[in-house]
């Protein structure tokens, strides 16, 4: 399977962001990509006050544009995430996945909200405007089952474990780590989730804009089940296409059978 990562910035211009995504999706199709991932909140600036302003209901105009692009380009599209508004007016950080016909096959509402205050570094509170989701999200494709979570969800290994236990061979994390957490933990966490689950992981970040109020780290990345970095982008806007061989999962699990060696302690597999 060929996996494409589109690293782009979520600017204040929603239409520009959609056109940028559509441009790269068409290019990914030309390069033979099967599955394409966009970054977290690619539709808007990564600011708590922006999320309600840009929020759309599921099936709204931006959803429709991404569905149409997946169908036009014949791609499986993990359309990053975007602000979603439900019937009660609650706002979620929501990731949608569309199949090659443009049909939605998955929806993940970010489960763990990014509420942090790092001394001398980043302060942010998604809970000021967002509501947390509560679903473990996996979906089936012609290449097998995939798992989907959003950014900060990556820090909670039990969630990744639940996805791999459900049969996911690739964990997708649209994200926007910042210049405090990115250099410290981005690669570390993607490699850890890959190695402890013995699956592929992919993190697709927003591109870096040093003038933005929230500066994203970039460095979108794909990691093998051995924890080896297969693809590592820089901070700039762009796209990469990487071929993934899922046969590697079985080889690694046979050589290092840690998933079969878990023990039941106190009623829990450890």
Describe the protein in words.
- By secondary structure, this protein is an alpha+beta fold.
- The protein has one domain (2-257): Carbon-nitrogen hydrolase (Nitrilase/N-carbamoyl-D-aminoacid amidohydrolase).
- It is built from six helices and 17 strands.
- It has helices at 14-30, 50-54, 61-73, 157-165, 181-197, 247-255; strands at residues 2-7, 35-37, 76-78, 82-85, 91-98, 104-109, 115-117, 123-125, 137-141, 144-148, 170-175, 200-205, 221-223, 229-232, 238-243, 264-265, 268-269.
- Strand 11 (170-175), helix 5 (181-197) and strand 12 (200-205) form a beta-alpha-beta unit.
- Helix 1 (14-30) runs parallel beside helix 3 (61-73).
- It is globular.
- 47% of the residues are buried.
Fold blueprint:
Elements: E1 2-7, H1 14-30, E2 35-37, H2 50-54, H3 61-73, E3 76-78, E4 82-85, E5 91-98, E6 104-109, E7 115-117, E8 123-125, E9 137-141, E10 144-148, H4 157-165, E11 170-175, H5 181-197, E12 200-205, E13 221-223, E14 229-232, E15 238-243, H6 247-255, E16 264-265, E17 268-269
Helix pairs in contact: 1-3
